[in-house]
Amino acid sequence: MPEPFHLAWFLQGSSAQAWGEPWTGLVGTSWIVPELFTDLARVLERACFDYVLIEDSSYIGESYGASTAIYLENAIAVPRQDPSVIASLMTTVTSRIGIVPTFGTYAHHPYLLARLVATLDQVSSGRIGWNAVTGSSDYAAMNFGLPGMPEHDLRYDMADEYMAAVRALWASWEPGAVIADRESGVLIDPAKVHHAHFEGIWFRTRGPLNSGKQWSKAARWCRSRSRLMRVASSRQTWLAVDPLPSGESTSP
Fold first, then answer.
1. What is the CB-side half-sphere exposure of residue 25 using CA atoms within 13 A?
2. What is the pLDDT of residues 113-137, one digit of tens each?
3. Looking at the DSSP assignment, which residues form a beta bridge with residue 98?
4. What confidence tens digit (pLDDT) does each residue in 208-243 have?
5. SS3 of 15, please?
6. 16 burial level (CB within 10 Å; 0-12, 13-18, 19+)
7. Residue 192 has what DSSP assignment?
8. Fewer CB near the terminus (10 Å): N or C of the chain?
9. Confidence band (pLDDT; 50, 70, 90) for 149?
10. Could you count the other beta carbons within 10 Å of the beta carbon of residue 121?
11. CA-CA distance, 174 to 185, in Å (whole number)?
C-alpha cells in the first residue's frame, strides 16, 4: 500500500509578479481584494491540501542598480500585505486546512508575536502555524530602525532565545485555566496563570499573556540554508529549496 503524503501550497505574497502574463487573469488588480486569498484557501481545502504557507518580506528590493525601480515595475516580491491579516481572512472561510503565516524574529517583540499567534490559533480552532525566519536583508532591518541585520550565526543565537521567550509566554497559561464556572462566578483560575519573567541576553518579557493560551500547540517552523540542526528543536516541517545564486535571498 502506498504511503500517504502531505501537500502544502507556498503562497508567495500577493503572487502578482506574473501579472502581465495572459494566464494570470486580472491579478494585476485583484491582488488587492480579499477574494484572491479566500478563494485560494477554499480551493486548497477542497483539494485536501494540509496547509498553505504565506511567504513574506518586509522591504522593497533595491540590490539591482541601487534602485527600487525594477522591483516595482515588474512586481518582484512586491506588493506584500501583512501575513497575519491574510491568515485571518483564510481561517474565516475554511475549517480543516492549516494556515501558516511568516513572521520574522527581528520584526516582532516576543510578547507581540506570542499574543498574535495565540490569537490566530484560537480563532482558527487550532489551525495556525508559524514560519519563523530570522531575516537576511539589511533593508528590512532598517525599516524597523535597526542599522542592519546581525551576522548570520548571531541571528540564530538570538532566534534560539526568541523561541524560548515565546514558549515561556505560551506556557504562562496552564491547561484548564479557563473554567467558566457559573456557580462560583469565576471565568479564569488565577492559580493557573503565571508571570513568565523571562530574562535573556537580547529579549526580556514579564508576562503573562492577556490573550489566553493557544488552542493547541501551534506549529513552529524555521528555515535556513545552513546550521539546520541548530534550530531542529523548533522545526516541525522542513522546507526544501534549491540553492540561490550568491547574494540572493528569499528571507524577509
1. 7
2. 999 999 999 999 999 999 999 998 9
3. 51
4. 999 987 765 545 554 444 444 343 344 455 554 444
5. coil
6. buried
7. G
8. N
9. very high
10. 25
11. 20
Domain ranges of the chain: 8-151+211-234
Q: Supply φ then ψ for residue 218, to 5 degrees.
A: -60, 145
CB 98 within 8 A of CB 219: yes
What CATH number belongs to 8-151+211-234? 3.20.20.30
Please, which residues have CB within 8 angstroms of residue 109's CB and are 6 or more apart in sequence? 203, 205
Answer whether 123's CB lies under 8 Å from 90's CB: no
46 near 87, Cβ under 8 Å? no
User: Is the confidence at residue 249, as pLDDT, over 90?
Assistant: no
- Kindly state the helix (H) or strand (E) to which residue 72 belongs, with its residue range: helix 69-73
Above pLDDT 70, what percent of the chain?
A: 85
From start to end of the chain, where are the E strands? Answer: 8-11, 51-54, 98-104, 129-133, 178-181, 186-188, 198-199, 204-205, 219-222
State residue 188 phi and psi, 5-degree precision.
-125, 130
What's the whole-number average pLDDT of the chain? 86
**Angle ∠(145,85,23) on CA atoms, nearest 5:** 105
Question: Exposure of 25 by Cβ count < 10 A (0-12 exposed, 13-18 middle, 19+ buried)?
Answer: exposed
